[in-house]
Amino acid sequence: MTSVTSIKQGQGNQTQERIPDLRKTGANPDYWYPLARSGDVKAGKVIGRRFAGDPIALVRTKSGKLFALEDRCAHRQVPLHVGVVDGEEIQCGYHGWRFDCSGSCVNIPYVGKSKSVPRGVRSYPCREAYGLIFVFPGDAAKADTVPFPEINTWDDPKYKTRFLDDQVTCHYSFLHENLMDMNHQFLHRRIMSKIKTTYLGLREGDGWVEVDYTFAREGKTPMGEKFILGKRTGREEDRVKDKMTIRTQYPYQILKFWTEGAEHPALDLWITYVPVDSKQRINHTFGLINVRKPSIPGIIHLFWPIIVYFTNGIFGEDRWIVELEQAAFDEQGADWNQEIFHVVKKVRELMLEKGVPIPAYYTE
Length: 364
What we know:
Number of helices: 5
Shape: globular
Strand order of the largest sheet: 15-21-20-19-18-17-16
Largest sheet: 7 strands, antiparallel
Order of helices and strands: EEEEEEEEEEEEEEEHHEEHEEEEHHE
CATH architecture of the largest domain: Alpha-Beta Complex
CATH topology of the largest domain: Naphthalene 1,2-dioxygenase Alpha Subunit, Chain A, domain 1
CATH superfamily of the largest domain: Naphthalene 1,2-dioxygenase Alpha Subunit, Chain A, domain 1
């Protein structure tokens, strides 16, 4: 947990006290984070990505093998992602030094294999699943013991998947709070009309917090929502309420939406936020929206553009508002939020417990 001296506002004056600063707490690297979609790295190609400022090269060999290395050549520190994939190795684009999947320098063209070669570059545990490329940026010795995320509806033929792949200019904690706090539906009034959110309960355990909500609508149901949730009839008071369960399973978030007591969720969202820059003020969101298919074969493909348009609108408003939160924090220089909702407080406690200090704030 990161502790810093912060300015806290209250009753017209300011006081200075030693409190944990969540907005200056970093994402814990000892977890599996997606850095790209599978299709971003073609066979025989390499791309560059970053985790909290650290450059990482994702390499796919011509045989299809995938690996991740520090994106800096051990020779002149030139990014390896501007190099060339040759066989099962990556060759620096400057002097042609060659590195294998372990990061070892295996050949220097003007020295040869028979001569001693210098230390190589760091390698990262790397896995491919759910159409994403995951990297373990922390202590590699822990990679086999840290649970890999489970997305059960990913390969379920009863669901169709949409990928989320975008950057948001804010600290990841604002994004966690936004999704867990369904009291912000007023933000989406133009897209979803007026919705009354009812909090049902909270559960928590080691590394997770989970909350249930139900909803009542005043006004017409948007077309995109109809296609996601299906046809629902009957008066609101005569039927079982819809239920949404949202879990922050650090560092991931899962949202499931059931309609009228259905056995299977109509919507199953998995999402996480990957810090890009050293101060973690830019995060790349990777997510999968799994929508249950209607009983009529093929109809979901016909209406998929409407679903995409609808969800783009919701996520666009969420991005706009959390970036405004970040701007307010930057302008004030501290977190002056007067939070009253205990769900958000619990999520903040979890992120502080699991987070790590951001070195950039201590080396300026």
